[in-house]
Amino acid sequence: QAEMNAIVLDNIRTAEAAETATAEQNRQYERGTAAALTLTATQWTATPTIDSRATAEARLTATQIAAITTATAEAQRTATSHAATQAWIDSWTDTPTVTFIPSHTPTVTPIPTLSPEQIALTPQTANADWTPYERDFASVTMVLVPAGCFLMGRNDSLDNEQPVHEICFNDPFWIDKTEVTNDQYGSSGGSWSGGNLPRESVNWSEAQDFCNARGGSLPTEAEWEYVARGPDALVYPWGNEFVQENVVSSGNSSKTEPVGNRPDGASWVGVLDMSGNVNEWILSEYRAYPYDPSDGRENINSDVVRVVRGGSWGDGVNFLHGYFRYYYNPLFAGYTVGFRCVLPYQ
What we know:
Strand content: 5-15%
Order of helices and strands: HHHEEEEEHHHEEEEE
Low-confidence stretches: 33-50, 54-58
Number of strands: 10
Structural class: alpha+beta
Radius of gyration: 58 Å
Largest sheet: 4 strands, antiparallel
Mean pLDDT: 83
Strand order of the largest sheet: 1-2-5-10
């Protein structure tokens, strides 16, 4: 811009100089003409000559000045336009955010939450997939047992525990969380008094009648073992390794203990004392495997030997497995045998 201004200034000065020269020539011409008027005709020899080249150069310089002036103005307008554009660009500090406002709020359909009773209708395939769930029936805590399958028996054990075979339950059922106590039975006529001790010294019919009065029955042999071992077919209710502190047995006791006194011995559905404390009467007649509920072994009217399960306070480790089975005459009533009840799914 400074150079352009200097050029304009030089051109202006040149133009002014040309105009001054022309004016001087015009003055000289005027003076010469005046002098010539005093001369006689004979003295007049020629018309004064005007320097046309200087005049043309002056005019050319003026044209150049006008062009330069116009270019300068145009350059100024362009620079001003560029400066305004750059200022507009500089005013943008961030990319504008476009917010879309939905025309309506979408409707979300909630996924219904299933209750444990509903979940129990789906067959379970692993012990860990089930979360223990309990509920009171007439002040007695019972545990929900879901539908599912398991392998009953053990091939590397006693002959009466073989062969291994699959048993499935299409319907859930309920089972007492603990063995029936003296308080629940309504009598302390067993060998040891104490309201929370398991009721023992009852025969098979007395136990079955008590469960019937509650709207249930003694568990079948398959129901009992499924509760004790689950789909994983565990050796013991709590796992596959024996843990003395999980069970009331001859290794740590000389009598029964309050029910539920060994919580770490709970089975996969949360049932307590399925190993030790007292043997438990089973609904089923004692027959060879494979177990078949339709072969008459669940006939409650026949006076036949009945299965007992679970081992007792007087038994050692070999009688405490979840698959151990033994039998007694249904009239037997001893201080090592108690029971628990089951209810159908409702």
